[in-house]
Design a protein that fits this description.
72% of the residues lie in helices and 4% in strands. The two termini are 18 Å apart. The C terminus is likely disordered. The protein has one domain. The chain has a three-stranded antiparallel sheet. It contains ten helices and three strands, in the order ααααβααααββαα.
Amino acid sequence: MATKLNLKRVSFIVLLLLTHLSFSYYYFPWFWSSLIGFVIILFLSYKIWKNAFIFWIGIPVKRKELLISLLLLIIFFAGSFAIILLIARNNQIEIRLRSYKTLVHSLFYTLNEEIIIGALLLKGIRHRWKKLSKPLISLTVALAFALVHFIFYKLIFVASGNLSLITIVTLFLVGVFRNNLILKTGHIGYSWALHFGWIYVMLGCQHLNLLTAKYLTDFDRFQMYLGDFRVMIISLVLAGFSFYLIKKKLLFPDYGHPIA
């Protein structure tokens, strides 16, 4: 009986991953495909963990958590826009907003990523290997996160080129910051605010090179913005501060080890 239950759970978890990969990255021509993916992820999560599914997917439910998440979203969005605009102007790039469709897609695509490769991955690791420290988990997952991006552009989008060392380091540092926020709070509210605030400006908007009259590709934007030395320094400060948060009962308590 236990084996059948474990097999069923594994099957549903595989479906969760496939749902995310299928509906979050524009494999379908609808701008609301990421929203559909989010609904399916909620349904499958409930089928796996029943009443504990909110815990596992890391959705914040307390009023304080929601309010802080919204406040951080405003701060991260404003900060991201200011930094990217500064870099863009220095490189003769014009940022153009797109329609609400891109906003909707970016909102749920980042939310799905935070659930699958944020809350579920980090909590799953802590539940499976309870003796591993949170800093070690955070650093390992962040390293994998950065390397996946490098391999993605190296092997899949071969024509794009290689991500620079600064870009890879920045991705690693941002991953550390994101991981530590989730490991400390137990939810994805704050990490999603960071993720959505940055991604919508960097990838959700159009970036026109005024010198060539061509729009920047995703690879170009990764290189230009995440490959900027100033962004790497800011990411380093945030990553360092997040380790301080893990050790201190600041703003929010430690959520503890995952439940079974």
